[in-house]
Amino acid sequence: MVDIHLDPDVLSGLQEVMEGEYPKLLDTFLDDSQKRVEALRKARDDAKALGRIAHSFKGSSGNLGAVRLAQLCQRLEVESVESSADLGALVDQIDHEFALVKPLYESERQRFGV
C-alpha cells in the first residue's frame, strides 16, 4: 500500500479550480469526514452499512487527495462484501488515518485565512 497521506498535486488542482471556495471545500470535507468516521464506529458490526459508508468516504477522500484514507476505505468496502477480515480493525485503521490527515487539512485551511 502506498504510504502517501495527502497528495499535494490534488490539493493544488482543487485550489486552482475552486479559487475562493477552496477553504469552504476543505471545511466541508473535514466535517463530512468526521461524521463518516463516527458512522463507521457505530456500524462496526454491520457489514452492509460499513460497505455503504466506506464507498462514499472512499470517493470524497480520493477527490480531496487523501490517498491512504481512500485506499483503506476501498479495502473496507471490498472486505465488507467478502466478510473475510476483521472489519473492526479496518475501521480502527480508517479512524487512525483520518486522525493523521485531519491536522494536515486544517493546516491547509489556515493558509487561506478564517
TrEMBL record:
Q: Which Pfam families match?
A: Hpt
Q: Which residues carry this modification: Phosphohistidine?
A: 55
Q: Does the keyword Iron apply?
A: no
Extent of the signal sequence: none
Q: Which InterPro entries match?
A: HPT_dom_sf (IPR036641), Sig_transdc_His_kin_Hpt_dom (IPR008207)
Q: Where does the source fall among the domains of life?
A: Bacteria
Q: Which SUPFAM superfamilies does its entry note?
A: Histidine-containing phosphotransfer domain, HPT domain (SSF47226)
Q: Which UniProt keywords apply?
A: Kinase, Phosphoprotein, Transferase, Two-component regulatory system
> What GO MF annotations does this protein's record show?
protein kinase activity
Domain HPt: from-to ranges: 15-108
What Gene Ontology terms for biological process does this UniProt record contain? Answer: phosphorelay signal transduction system
Protein name (Swiss-Prot/TrEMBL): Histidine kinase
What organism is listed for this UniProt entry? Pseudomonas aylmerensis
